[in-house]
Amino acid sequence: MPIFVTQLSKEEIQRRWDLASAAKKAELRQSLRDPTVWLDQTLSLIGAAIKAFCLMLVVNSVFWDQGVTVPWGLSFFLSLPIVALNPWQIFWRYVPLDRASAEYQRVIDELNEKL
User: Fold this and answer.
1) Do residues 74 and 27 lie in contact, with contact meaning Cβ atoms separated by under 8 Å?
2) Are 59 and 78 in contact (CB under 8 A)?
3) CB of 115 within 8 A of CB of 3?
């Protein structure tokens, strides 16, 4: 059962936030040295490249349906801002930060269970 913030004192809220933030920072430092995290990050970027290529195909086919022949370079530059901005983490994600955020949430959940 979740603990509502209004039920806790300000000192307890600050203590929980400090503990969870310290755990997140430690996990981020540790995950930056973990080779499996970098393997996952590489696989994420390979997946992003495949998705970007598919987006280029979609952009090219939209113009193709209009009867316009678009060079591949132009479709690449039209799809590049979408991939670079990465809305909603569709194309790629930062794996060390995902692990650190999961650790933060784990500490918060653990502190909520103790109360």
Assistant:
1) no
2) yes
3) yes
Sequence-separated (6 or more) residues with CB below 8 Å from residue 51: 83, 90, 91
Euclidean distance between CA atoms 63 and 73, whole angstroms: 13
Helix, strand, or coil (residue 94):
coil
Tokens of 34: 């973990």
The token pair at 112 is 């909520």
Question: Sorting pLDDT into bands at 50, 70 and 90, what band is 27?
Answer: very high
In terms of DSSP H, where are the helices of the chain? 10-32, 35-65, 72-85, 95-114
Type of residue at 70: V
User: What does the longest C-alpha to C-alpha distance in the chain come to?
Assistant: 66
3-class secondary structure, 2:
coil
Q: What is the C-alpha to C-alpha distance for residues 70 and 86, in angstroms, rounded to an integer?
A: 24
CB neighbours of 37 closer than 8 A, spacing ≥ 6? 31, 95, 96, 99
Contact 75, 59 (CB under 8 A): yes
Express as a percent the part of the chain with pLDDT over 70. Answer: 94
